[in-house]
Amino acid sequence: MRRSVQLFFKVAVLGASGAVGQPLCLALVQNRKVSELRLYDIVSPLGDATDLSHIPRKVKVTGHLPKGIHRALEDADLVLISAGIPRSPGMFREDLFNANRHVIQDLSKEVAKYAPRAVIGIISDPLNSMVAVAAETLRQAGTYDPRKLFGISSLDTMRAQSMLADFTGNDPEQLHIPVLGGHSGQTIVPLFSQSGVPLTREEAEYLTHRVRRGGDVVVNAKGGRGSSSLSAAYAVADWADCVMRALDGEEGLVRSSMVESPLVPETTRFFASPVEFGKHGVQRVLPLPPLNEYEEEQLDRCLADLEKNIRKGLQFVTSKPSE
Ligand code: LMR
């Protein structure tokens, strides 16, 4: 029997004034599962919080600068990290590693200190390495719980849906395409064979290429004014909604996420795939569906790169232990 008391959640967005953070906060303030929305950033979170507080919703919105980060994080149920810099045309996501690794390490230390039980969703790029940086930082602080750390990779699933729909004329909302691997280059492996739409190998190659290049196309189209922000915020808001509903006991909620995964060898550790959420975060990593020959080849290539990206993130933290 479903209990009558519904849970509401305190959500902290770290990087709230950024290009993803702003539309994300606008979406979260409209989510009825959010009781408190805490905006943290190094610039202007107070103004954005005041702005959002004029929207007539029951949610309490507050803004926090670095000296008040503990107030942004204390008792938070869900922490979404979109902080860091975006790429410019001509850059790969990996080129952001040096700029963003310290940001993610420092914020993960604060999360370990003030919100050790929160579910954490990482958005910042390069995602494959940033998840590893966060995991190792939390582990060193003694608060790493593999059920609670996620890289949010569902933007790739959305791209696979919209690009297949664009190609075939199908309704994008009716298409289901699991995406495996990670969130850069050939680590992104969409399984178009699962869509129910018959495609030739050449068509699957073309669509896979389009999904992989999705972020680059936006970066180029924005011409130096950042990367995906609106679609990224949409993906994260949808992901966060599913996580909160699952924390509140709803079953069967699945989204593509990068987590510590039983689907890959110990040396790779983190892998994006459809994950079912539960009351404590990861409920279950769904088993892999059957892959066709093209997808098997792509998965092999993915794992080689993914392992390197993850090792780079782990080594950055282990070679520079927390003080
Ligand atoms: C994306 O996929 O759009 C984001 O990871 C941003 C980027 O730089 O591609």
Automatic annotation (TrEMBL):
Active site at H183
UniProt xrefs under Pfam families: Ldh_1_C, Ldh_1_N
Entry keyword Transcription regulation = no
Task: From the UniProt record, list the reaction(s) this protein catalyses.
Answer: (S)-malate + NAD(+) = oxaloacetate + NADH + H(+)
Q: How does it assemble?
A: Homodimer.
PANTHER family noted in UniProt: MALATE AND LACTATE DEHYDROGENASE (PTHR11540), MALATE DEHYDROGENASE, MITOCHONDRIAL (PTHR11540:SF16)
Q: Please identify the protein, giving its name as recorded.
A: malate dehydrogenase
Organism of origin:
Leptomonas pyrrhocoris (Firebug parasite)
